[in-house]
Amino acid sequence: MISVIIPVYNCEKYIERCVESIIVQKSANVDLEIVLVDDGSKDNSYNVCVEMKKRYPDSVVLVHKDNGGVSSARNAGMDAAHGEYYFFADSDDVVTEKALESLTTLTSKEAQLYMGEVRICGTKRQILYTKKASYTKEEFIYEMMTEPSTELLASGVWGKLFLASIITKNKIRFDERYQNGEDGLFFADYLKYVSRVEVFDGEFPVYKLYRYDAGERESAVSYFYPDLFEFFVLHREMLYRMLYDSKGINLKEVHQHYINDLIILLVRAFAFPEFFNEKVLLEILKKLLRNEMLKRASRDYERKLRGSSILIPFGLRHNCKYILYWQLRRRGKQYRKRRYSGEKLRSIFR
User: Which one of 41-50, 100-109, 133-142 scores highest in mean pLDDT?
Assistant: First the structure.
């Protein structure tokens, strides 16, 4: 049986659509339950969940709890689940028709993770996909760290079948200290116990991820959620450790992408001092420069693009905090000027 775990918080308009997209997939080939976890919603979400429970009493498990965040809600969902496999969905998203049956067909193969393509719907349409249909763990992690589409696909828990036995045996949980990026850490933790990954190579994505236009201000704020850099480094380290002793893996390429991603993240942070003052930014750089993975990666880093900074990778490599600070501050101003100007910029921080 598949347990579809759905955290619910203030999503009264979308819950029914999500549940109906799943319940129609129950068949002779797909045994499923839907675990709805209302995380102390302040709107009518809980009542909608109650209605779903009444409509499908044999298929819906309803959990009602005080607000604790999405990690807490997903953990509560796992505690209430009975299935052999876990499938995570968000209450405002849609599970594509026949997606669960398609993923179920993969379970005959000797793997510990089954997944499919994800379509992002909303203001920016995009399909997240992998390059192959079958991977060893090391091959999959390498592609995660070097291919943007695979990295985005693997940064969330949606569109995947997880083995409940692995999660239970190894006490894998969503870290309730984090409200953003928690699914990436959960996924990286799960990968420790995976030897093979199978991907549904069909003509349709298995999951529709909806992204609503929250406006430019919220888009800018999303770059800077609490503990952003701590999450970035921790997530990359968890993946990196699983690759470090692997044969046939080009760690130099992994290092190249790691430093590129870090520089982009830092430039964006320095572009908006409204979020981080000088003291906070210097403390971030101080912590980063103590990181061993960063030191190893910076030694392999090569400047490949014309116009990219020479001094930023130099500062990372040689532990030069103040060179880094001034270069990132300059690059941040350039980034901000190119991306936002005049009324557009003022509207972000209104």
Answer: 41-50
